[in-house]
Specification:
The chain is about 30% helix and about 25% strand. The chain contains 2 helices and 3 strands. The protein is globular and about 35 Å long.
């Protein structure tokens, strides 16, 4: 399975509770933090919900 790197590039302040929880579920807490996940449909759906707050690249 392919891996993807997700970087938090914008703050979650003044965002909906759903978006904040999605970032936490992805493992993103601090600005500039990078996490690596498998390229699964569940993860891609979560990224789609917060794509304006994160940057995604293939690992």
């Amino acid at each position: 399975m392919a891996k993807i790197k997700i970087t938090k590039v914008k703050s979650a302040i003044n965002r909906t509770q759903n978006q904040k929880r999605t970032l936490e579920a992805l493992g993103l807490h601090k600005m500039g933090q990078v996490v690596e996940h498998d390229d699964t449909p569940n993860i891609l759906g979560m990224i789609k919900k917060v794509n304006h707050l994160v940057s995604v690249e293939t690992a």
